[in-house]
Design a protein that fits this description.
Length: 356
């Protein structure tokens, strides 16, 4: 039986058939590459079995019937790709390390307060917008009071959920006008982007709105280290949502985070539109942690009504008063107020007492 497999003669990049330049043998083969020359390029080496010689310049035995123009490739050379990827990784990893615990310098002497806004949903018909702006006035007018936002600033319906714009009187364009106006109403210590916010994708309008502000803006969550003038450090772990659920304890997810390793003074989250509060103590260090689950400003929710979810909105803007003169195991270090107006009065009293 005849051998149906035939050896293909070598060709150069232009498709020309090659032979040995030293003899009449047209049956040469590729034999690796020579070392890089002065230009830094490798060149194909060919071997002739008839005369036992290598060559870098083979003889052309037959020219190709056509030659296609060389088209430059779109990609970078592999060496440049690897170099770029290493640089990109180093930048990303450095940013990741720095964001694990972000320092915030507190330049205010004495006690301070942080009002933690639950999900605002400023464009929803079920949200009391007047309540939100009244709180903004309270924060601006209270010395030592700061604001934090736990995310879901607006509904930001996308995809198939865009049909829900038909169930609210605020248009998508008006939603962004209210969002920008609201975010410019106070100087936020921190702003967390919730799931509704991150639906915008990489072109994040919130990041654009916050670009010139000194506020901390992070998607999903941020862990902060408040550094007070007297040297006291207070860690605040604010997320849109912590992992875990319990039908018996609305603050379960946050208290679970404390008990599984997050040794922070204040841990707070929104997302679930319910309120919950627990105080826990680390027996090893004596650190007291406040786990605060914050409800929403969205008081009327058709989705919750559809699922038959109970009303568990006790507070939507709790205030944590921090008095940096006390130790981590002292229950006077942090005092939590469910009512922000009561919290503002207590903060004013504490600051007057401090000045005396």
């Amino acid at each position: 039986m005849a051998n149906i497999y035939t050896k293909k003669p070598p060709k150069d990049d232009a498709g020309n058939l090659l032979g040995c330049p030293f003899c009449d043998n047209d049956d040469i083969c590729k034999n690796g590459f020579n070392k890089k020359d002065k230009t830094g390029e490798k060149r194909q080496r060919y071997y002739c079995s008839k005369c036992d010689r290598n060559t870098l310049v083979p003889r052309i035995t037959h020219y190709s019937e056509f030659v296609v123009q060389d088209i430059p490739v779109e990609e970078m050379p592999i060496e440049d790709i690897i170099k770029y990827r290493n640089k990109k990784y180093n930048l990303k990893y450095n940013a990741y390390k720095q964001s694990r615990l972000i320092d915030i310098e507190i330049n205010t002497l004495g006690p301070i307060g942080i009002c933690h806004f639950g999900d605002p949903h400023v464009d929803d018909d079920g949200t009391n917008l007047a309540e939100i702006y009244t709180l903004c006035d309270l924060i601006r007018n209270t010395k030592g009071m700061f604001a934090g936002n736990l995310g879901d600033v607006q509904n930001n319906w996308i995809g198939r959920l865009q049909a829900l714009y038909g169930q609210q009187s605020t248009t998508a364009k008006e939603s962004w006008l209210i969002t920008e106006h609201f975010l410019n109403s106070v100087d936020w210590m921190y702003l967390i982007a919730g799931n509704h916010d991150v639906w915008s994708g990489d072109g994040d309008p919130l990041e654009f709105i916050m670009r010139d502000k000194k506020s901390l803006y992070q998607q999903h969550g941020a862990r902060m280290n408040l550094r007070f003038p007297n040297g006291k450090n207070i860690r605040v772990n604010a997320r849109h949502q912590f992992k875990g659920n319990s039908m018996w304890n609305t603050a379960h997810a946050i208290s679970r985070a404390v008990q599984t390793g997050w040794r922070d003074h204040i841990l707070t989250a929104g997302h679930t539109h319910v309120s919950g509060y627990q105080v826990l103590k680390d027996p090893a260090s004596g650190l007291i942690s406040h786990a605060i689950q914050v409800a929403s400003f969205k008081n009327m929710d058709e989705y919750a009504n559809k699922l038959g979810l109970d009303d568990k909105n006790i507070f939507n803007a709790p205030v944590t008063i921090i008095d940096p003169q006390y130790d981590d195991n002292d229950n006077r270090l942090i005092t939590t107020f469910f009512n922000p107006y009561e919290g503002a009065e207590y903060l004013t009293y504490k600051r007057k007492k401090y000045k005396k």
